[in-house]
Write a structure and sequence with these properties.
About 65% of the residues lie in helices and about 10% in strands. It has about 120 residues and is mostly helical.
Length: about 120
């Protein structure tokens, strides 16, 4: 079950999602585009690259349509981000946390609590 299939992106969440995807692509470099024949001939190599190096690959077909190959870890990350972006309650909680952090008014753990957290 995937979140992306179940939920539609509304206008309020479209921009953050687009910016997230843009940042993701820029962080990992420009997506490589290859033909479906190249992909088929070197399937193992491209799948390994997607899995090990988080390469995002666009595979084009003659009819102009294509598909994207990425690791399941990257896809799950995108799904989680979409879920957060589409959840108004979580977005408000994040915004509130950001404001308290910027104002330095948030919860401050004791030294003992900090030491316990930092042990991990």
């Amino acid at each position: 079950m995937t979140i992306a299939r179940e939920r539609q992106i509304d206008k309020r969440t479209a921009l953050p999602y687009i910016l997230f995807m843009r940042r993701l692509i820029l962080q990992r470099g420009i997506m490589t585009t290859i033909s479906v024949n190249q992909f088929r001939d070197h399937l193992r190599h491209y799948v390994d690259e997607a899995e090990k190096n988080h390469e995002v690959l666009t595979v084009s077909r003659r009819n102009g349509k294509g598909f994207v190959v990425m690791s399941s870890e990257d896809w799950q990350s995108i799904e989680e981000t979409l879920f957060v972006l589409q959840n108004q309650s979580l977005m408000q909680q994040i915004e509130k946390s950001l404001q308290t952090h910027q104002k330095n008014t948030g919860y401050k753990p004791s030294q003992e609590e900090s030491d316990e957290i930092n042990r991990f």
